[in-house]
Amino acid sequence: MSYTEKPLPRGYNWRSSKWFILSTVAIALFAETFLYGFLVPILGDMLQNRLHVHPSKAQELTSAVLALHGTLAMFSAPIIGYFSDKNQNRKATLLLSLAWCIIGTGIVAGARSVPMLLLGRAMQGIAGSAVWIIGFATVADTINPNHMGFALSTMMSCANTGTIGGPAIAGLLLEVAGYWLTWSVPLVVLTIDFIARMCMIESPATPPSTPDGSLTETAGLLPSREEQQIPSKSRNLWGIILCNGRAMTCLLTIVMGTTMATSFDATLPLHVEERFGWGPSTTGLLFAGLVVPGILIGPVAGCLRDRVGAQIPTVICAIIQATMLGLMGIAGGDIPWASAQNMGKPLYAGCIVAIGTLRPFVTGIAPVELTATTKAMQERSPGIFGPKGGMSRIFSMMDVAASLGMMIGPIIGGSLKEMLGYKYMSWTWSFVYLILAALSVCFLGPQDTEKVPRSRSEEE
Questions:
Q1: Which of 85, 168, 309, 385 could form a disulfide with 447 if both were Cys (CB 3.0 to 4.6 A apart)?
Q2: Helix, strand, coil % in the chain, rounded to nearest 5
Q3: Separation between Cα atoms, residue 190 and residue 270, nearest integer Å
């Protein structure tokens, strides 16, 4: 068989480098979360002035538009993960998701009816789910396992930056620049995202070469010797992961961490207004206290996991976070020293900041540990999840877990507050975090590949 030597594409070295691939994924994640939050401060104006929705239906429709994103992500994630693991070229899939997102964003911006608004939002939701799954899978396949914690945590920090930046920029521009100039900002973000994705060249772990040793841009499409030796028989990934105590602890941590965090959306504003008399501006600062520390601390948490493993930081920070949740419940209550007139206000604000600081060490480490667990299974039994591995399906499971938490968080939080009161709602979350700490002690042992426990499904 003869090979035709092909010249390397221009800029191959930097376009296929790890730093550029990570930067491209970071931009994609930022763009997705930026677009998700960008609509929030604009939506009320759109419903009133463009869609002419009756004020009595505005709140219901606002909730439906925002919930649609998470709902579609939860149902589409397994499908996206399955086909992504079957596809050899993740760059093409990322470009397809970007095109889908651009069309959906255009439909949302130009919507003149509620059905068109929902259609555009649905397209954004599916495209966003694809970005999360394929983007994180690309990072997992690119980065050495010893640096996985730092890489994934940094990606998450970039995504959280978009969560904060989207609403802030949209709200400011809508007041000073008008509707269409406001929507030009997402267009700029998507343009930068498009350029980065077009430039990126996927860098396989062991790129094949031409007869003279040079690499080709299409080399990733050719099976390597290692791939040819991978057993053809693969196992059921879903069954193996769901029967593995280590993996299930990670998924449960993601679900409960997201549930607790989103429960604040439904309970915090009304509680601080009733208890402390704080208005929207102070409430906004409290929500910033839940998010901003995680952006700064996230890479540190990931680096700590790479050095000492997941168990120690997760257990310690889960216990401390449970303590903060317990104290937050009594802040501003009947206890004299914690009343609103004494230490209640600084105690509540301090607990909020502490919870935001500790979150990366618990819910932020869980995705990293689940990724490492899956890689350990694949190294121990090559081909167990198919020739291309199962990273996309793993991240689709994480996406479903996070989406489930986003859906049930406000419902459970609001219900607990109504039935038991804010104090007992906080104590309930405190108890949940103590359970997560106990599960971490039992299942998040040494991170070494050889010591990751086998599940019964994996051994069969």
A1: 309
A2: 80, 0, 20
A3: 36
The DSSP output letter for 81 is: H
Q: What does the angle CA 355 – CA 361 – CA 367 come to, to the nearest 5 degrees?
A: 120
What domains are defined for the chain? 12-204 (1.20.1250.20), 237-452 (1.20.1250.20)
Paired tokens of 452: 């990751």
Buried b (16+ CB within 10 A) or exposed e, 426-456: bbbbbebbbebbebbeebbeebeeeebeebe
pLDDT, tens digit, 9 for 90 and up, residues 23-79: 888 888 888 888 877 887 787 778 888 888 887 777 678 777 777 777 787 788 888
CA angle, residues 47, 132, 284, in degrees to nearest 5: 50
Tell me which H or E stretch contains 447: none
The rounded distance, in Å, linking the Cα atoms of 318 and 437 is 6
Taking the model in full, what pTM does it have? 0.76
Tell me the DSSP string of 254-317. Answer: HHHHHHHHHHHHHHHHHHHHHHH---HHHHHHHHHHHHHHHHHHHHHHHHHHHHH-SHHHHHHH
367 contacts 159 by C-beta, under 8 angstroms: no
Query: In a 3-state reduction of DSSP, which class is residue 220?
Result: helix
C-alpha pair distances (Å), 53 with each of 114, 167, 171, 391: 8, 22, 20, 43
Judge residue 328's burial from the number of C-beta atoms within 10 Å of its C-beta, 0-12 exposed, 13-18 middle, 19 or more buried.
buried
- Apex CA 336: angle with CA 334 and CA 337, to 5°? 125
Identify how many contiguous H helices and E strands the chain contains and give both numbers: 18, 0
CB atoms within 10 A of CB 393: 24
Give the tens place of pLDDT for each residue, 68-119: 777 787 788 888 888 888 776 777 888 888 888 889 888 988 888 889 999 9
Could you tell me the two tokens for 232? Answer: 């053809």
